[in-house]
Structure formats: C-alpha cells, structure tokens
C-alpha cells in the first residue's frame, strides 16, 4: 500500500505543495486534499472583490482542478476531527475516515459568530472570503433603490478595508450611497503606528464614513447592533470583522493547541505531540514565537512545509522555519487609494494601492498557473 499524504485545506501555506503535487505522485505517494470548496480564495484581494475591482475568478485558486490534474484525490468536504492514534481524518459530511501517513493542516481561521444572534440574514463575516461576494450582491440589490445603512464591526485592517470598499462599490455602480458606520470599540486601528491611524481616519472621514469609538459591540441581531453600554443602532447590512479564531478541528480532536486554539507546532511546523502531523497558516500556533494572523506568514511557510512533508514521507531530517523580519503592510481603502507602511515609512494614496495591486496580481498569477 502506498504511503498517503493528506492535506486539510488548500490554503495559503499549501500553495507550493499543491503546485508540486506531481513530485509526490511521481515518487509513489498517494495525495488527498480535503476542502469544503472547489476553490481557495486569496484573502489579500477579498476587499477588492467586495468593491468590484476584482471578479471572483481573479482572486481564487482552482484547487480541485489542480489536484485532479496532477493525479491527486480531491474530497469536497470539511475535516471534522483528527484521530492521531489511528492516523485518520474524520470527514464532517460523510463521516468517512481518511487514512494518512503524513498529514498537513492549513484549515485557516474564521470570524467567531458568538455575538451574532437571530437568523443572521444580511450579516456577513470578513472570512471566509467567498462570503464577501454574497455581501456585494446584497448591497448592489438593496442600495439600488434606497439609502441603506451598512455597519462594519471591528477595529482592525479588515474592517477598514471593508468599509472603504463598500464606498467604492456604491460610488462606481452609481447606487444610493449608504450611511457607512464603523463600530471600532474603543480604539480604531489600536496598536498600529500613529501616522497610519491618522491617515486611515482622514481617508475614511473624507468618504463620509463614520467611525464610532464609544464602546464594544455586545450583540448583533438582524438589523440591530447593541453596544456594551446598551446603546442601540440600526443597520440594513452588517459586517463582522472582529478578528479571527483558528479552525476548531484541533480542540475538537484533543490535540495540543496554543492559547488561541491553533495546532501547537515546533520550529519544523510539526505538531509537538504527533510527528506525522504538520500545519501552516492561521490554524497553527507557532510555539517558538506566536505569529500574527496574516497571510504573509502562511506564504513564507510554503517552502519549508513542502520540503518537510516530502522529508517526513521519505524518512529524512526536517528543516526549521524562520518567520523572517518585519512585513510590508498595504491596505486597500477603496476608490483606488491605499496605505503602505513598513519600518518608518508610511504613506497613503494611489501609489500605495497600485503597489498592492501589482504584488497581489503577480502572486495569484504564479499559483493560478501552476
Ligand atoms: C478581509 C481580509 C483581508 C486580509 N488581507 C490580508 C492581506 O492583504 N495580507 C495579509 O498578509 N493578510 C491578510 N489577511 C489575513 C489573511 O486572511 C490570513 O492570514 C490568511 O487567510 C491565512 O491563510 P490560511 O491559508 O492559513 O487560511 P485561510 O485563508 O482561512 O484558508 C483556509 C482554507 O482551508 C479551508 N478549510 C477551512 N476549514 C476546513 C476544514 N474543516 N476542512 C478542510 N478545509 C477547510 C478553507 O476553505 C480555505 O480554503 C486578511 C484577512 C481578511 C479577513
């Protein structure tokens, strides 16, 4: 029986492994990829898809097509649990057990829905990225005939990008410009450099986007936002961008996890308890130095993860991952404007957006064509 490599999620840290799937097959290993969608969406271009700059096809990788073309098996389902003793992944939909010799997890993260009650109609989360497409269609439909209110809950980069791109969408499509409110708890872009915060605030305010910092949101219901101080606001469409949590698979499976519930891995991106299990991206907790939940780290993990999966199957020594230095931040604020920040350089405007657009398009083209 062939040795089996199983990948949970074809996320940003698995792109190089997927591009080189034929290497595993040619060496006589079986490869299975489990993912709930035939596509994986590139998050960096998600807000741009919401704003109408990109179509869905521009920002997604055709995981299923690629896996099958390279001779692997693609399973359209979610991994539910991992049993490290029996070395199987239990599927959520069919409850089938998929055996592995080596397993790699890149199931990412999602926005917790703890504060969302009611039937959730017209409430969208910043992740999964594909939901931003449904949000775009809903806004186009509703803002065509009325002046609606759009609420974005969150104080980080994704809330800023969502608010700015809702503005772009409505301006470009000549829809009724909604009232756009950003509920930023008590600190808009808290923890980011002061100049970046100042520039972002200036751009959003110029677009007429209101930034509220009078308290955290306690509950989101259909059409209502209730703050901790009991103040209430109404909105027709709501976005929750309150930060992300790693996939629940690892807690559910009783595997060692970090404080955020991510699979605890050592310097070789390998589970600290189960040497056959690896992982990358938002779903891991990197023991040596906890990493920000940004795609940059997932992307940087690609080469080490790819080589370590091959090494683990062949019984060779593993490499160590080094997170690298400070990363470049560029936010897409809609209407062709961005903010770029790295070290002591921070500037806003069209050039920042153009740099981001160029980097993102080049990145996606590399792996779309693999
Ligand atoms: C709006 C927004 C914009 C962002 N912009 C940037 C940016 O410009 N630059 C940047 O560096 N970071 C950005 N980020 C952060 C970035 O999204 C994450 O760090 C990045 O997505 C992590 O990649 P990942 O592959 O680990 O996870 P994900 O992108 O979440 O991918 C996980 C994959 O696993 C699949 N999956 C999920 N659950 C299961 C399961 N149970 N079984 C099997 N498969 C599963 C999913 O379908 C998905 O394909 C942004 C985030 C948001 C929300």
Structural write-up:
With 370 residues, the chain is α/β, with parallel strands linked by helices. The relative contact order is 0.16. 30% of the residues lie in helices and 26% in strands. The chain has helices spanning 15-19, 21-26, 46-51, 63-69, 131-143, 157-172, 194-206, 249-253, 295-314, 350-368, and strands at residues 4-8, 30-35, 40-41, 60-61, 73-76, 79-83, 88-91, 97-99, 102-105, 109-110, 123-125, 149-153, 179-183, 210-212, 217-221, 224-227, 232-234, 237-240, 245-246, 263-265, 277-279, 284-286, 329-334, 337-342, 345-349. The chain binds flavin-adenine dinucleotide. Flavin-adenine dinucleotide is lined by residues 8-13, 34-37, 40, 43-44, 46-47, 78-79, 106-109, 126-127, 158, 161, 247, 249, 281-283, 293-296, 298. Residues 8-13, 34-37, 40, 43-44, 46-47, 78-79, 106-109, 126-127, 158, 161, 247, 249, 281-283, 293-296, 298 line the site of flavin-adenine dinucleotide (FAD).
Question: Which secondary structure elements does this structure contain, and how are they paired or packed?
Answer:
Elements: E1 4-8, H1 15-19, H2 21-26, E2 30-35, E3 40-41, H3 46-51, E4 60-61, H4 63-69, E5 73-76, E6 79-83, E7 88-91, E8 97-99, E9 102-105, E10 109-110, E11 123-125, H5 131-143, E12 149-153, H6 157-172, E13 179-183, H7 194-206, E14 210-212, E15 217-221, E16 224-227, E17 232-234, E18 237-240, E19 245-246, H8 249-253, E20 263-265, E21 277-279, E22 284-286, H9 295-314, E23 329-334, E24 337-342, E25 345-349, H10 350-368
Parallel strand pairs: 1-2, 1-9, 2-5, 9-21, 11-18, 12-13, 12-18, 13-14, 20-22
Antiparallel strand pairs: 3-4, 6-7, 7-8, 10-19, 15-16, 16-17, 23-24, 24-25
Bound molecules: flavin-adenine dinucleotide.
């Amino acid at each position: 029986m062939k040795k089996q490599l199983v990948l949970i999620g074809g996320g940003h840290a698995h792109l190089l492994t997927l591009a080189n799937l034929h290497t595993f097959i040619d060496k006589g290993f079986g490869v299975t990829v489990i993912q709930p969608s035939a596509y994986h969406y590139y998050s960096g271009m998600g807000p741009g898809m919401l704003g109408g700059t990109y179509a869905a096809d521009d920002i997604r990788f055709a995981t299923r097509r690629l896996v099958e073309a390279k001779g692997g098996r693609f399973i359209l389902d979610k991994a539910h649990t991992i049993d490290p003793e029996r070395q199987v992944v239990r599927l959520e939909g069919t409850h089938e057990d998929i055996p592995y010799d080596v397993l790699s997890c890149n199931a990412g993260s999602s926005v917790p829905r703890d504060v969302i009650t009611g039937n959730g109609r017209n409430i969208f989360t910043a992740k999964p990225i594909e939901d931003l497409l449904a949000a775009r269609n809903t806004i186009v439909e509703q803002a065509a005939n009325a002046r609606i209110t759009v609420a974005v809950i969150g104080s980080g980069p994704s809330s800023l990008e969502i608010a700015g791109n809702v503005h772009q969408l409505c301006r470009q499509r000549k829809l009724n410009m909604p009232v756009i409110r950003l509920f930023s708890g008590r600190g808009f872009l808290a923890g980011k450099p002061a100049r970046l915060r100042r520039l972002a605030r200036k751009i959003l305010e110029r677009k007429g986007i209101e930034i509220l910092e009078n308290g955290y949101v306690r509950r989101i219901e259909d059409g209502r936002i209730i703050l901790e101080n009991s103040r209430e606001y109404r909105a027709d469409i709501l976005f929750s961008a309150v930060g992300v949590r790693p996939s629940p698979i690892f807690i559910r499976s009783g595997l060692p996890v970090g404080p955020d519930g991510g699979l605890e891995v050592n310097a070789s991106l390998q589970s600290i308890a189960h040497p056959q299990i690896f992982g990358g991206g938002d779903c891991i907790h990197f023991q040596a130095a906890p990493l920000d939940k940004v795609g940059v780290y997932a992307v940087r993990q690609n080469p080490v993860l790819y080589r370590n999966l091959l090494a683990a199957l062949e019984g060779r020594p593993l490499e160590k991952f080094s997170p690298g230095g400070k990363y470049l931040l560029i936010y897409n604020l809609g209407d062709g404007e961005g903010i770029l920040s790295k070290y002591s350089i921070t500037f806003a405007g069209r050039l920042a957006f153009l740099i981001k657009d160029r980097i993102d398009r080049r990145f996606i083209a590399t792996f779309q064509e693999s």
